[in-house]
Predict the structure.
Amino acid sequence: MKSVGHLDLSVRIGKLLLKNPVIVASGTFGYGQEFDPFIDLSQLGAVIPKGISLNPMQGNPPPRIFETNGGILNSIGLQNPGLQTFIKEKLPYFKKIKTNLIINFFGKTEQEYIELSKRLNDLPGISGLEMNISCPNVQQGGIIFGTDPRMTYRLVTKVRKSTHQPLIVKLSPNVTDIALMARSAEEGGADAVSLVNTFKALAINIHSKKPELGNIIGGLSGPAIKPIALRMVWETFQAVKIPVIGMGGILKAEDAIEFILAGARAIQIGTANLVNPRTGMEVIGGIHQYLLKNKIKSIKNLIGLFLK
Ligand SMILES: Cc1cc2nc3c(=O)[nH]c(=O)nc-3n(C[C@H](O)[C@H](O)[C@H](O)COP(=O)(O)O)c2cc1C
């Protein structure tokens, strides 16, 4: 089903066709199954489960989530069961889901990224890959792959050669020039960029004088980051030709429409899923209403209309 009523909500991200532009973001939607009682996953444009690494990861010490004004700080530390267990225990659920499954993945070394993308290349039932480059490269002294444009270019080039899957590169917002990072991913061969991941942040308990998170530093997400994320999406849209997928603090259809006007071809919903698991459905409904009210036949006619 490509359209809702006579309106066309479908968008293309490289060779990936989404029935609507609403995707649920990695790390905020479990492995899909947890949300099954609340929402018909098949109605979403795509689902992105929690990020996967080659080997299982324990994550960071607790506490790992702390609520702030208008957002949350998290330091989950990319906990996940590893590729093999994911394939055996989590992937089978998605067989009955009639939408795109995009696999979010990451590594600690270039080799791990390449190895994972090769293995994911032939995995049946997946529609694309989202590569998270916001993690430290252990071989290069903990420099984050996604904050050095040359490292981003190099990594994307290598991963591009190891997979035929549509490749979305998820950018870190912890940089001065997001457009430069997006161009590096584009030049490396990415089919699309998604942004933003979380902002590095801190909360202190004034009574214990200790950090609120076990890992001290965490990543800020939720409505508090929306205006910054929106600015970054707009800057990126102007800098690259490949599709831009926008996220950061989207709670309702109006937020999603702002991102689409700023140039996002699709949007992701993260933290809002933790508050209202039906957010994705409500955003699809709200976008539909907006198109209807404004007599716009296709969502494609809305993308990047800001200042035009
Ligand atoms: C608890 C939590 C876990 C997350 N885990 C991942 C992850 O595994 N991989 C990833 O690329 N992003 C991860 N993210 C980032 C989100 O996918 C998203 O980029 C970010 O939260 C901004 O969107 P939002 O403000 O709508 O939440 C996580 C975010 C949260 C809150």
Observations:
- The longest helix spans residues 279-293.
- The helical segments are 83-90, 110-121, 149-162, 178-188, 226-239, 253-261, 272-275, 279-293.
- The mean pLDDT is 95.
- The CA atoms of residues 28 and 270 lie 5 Å apart.
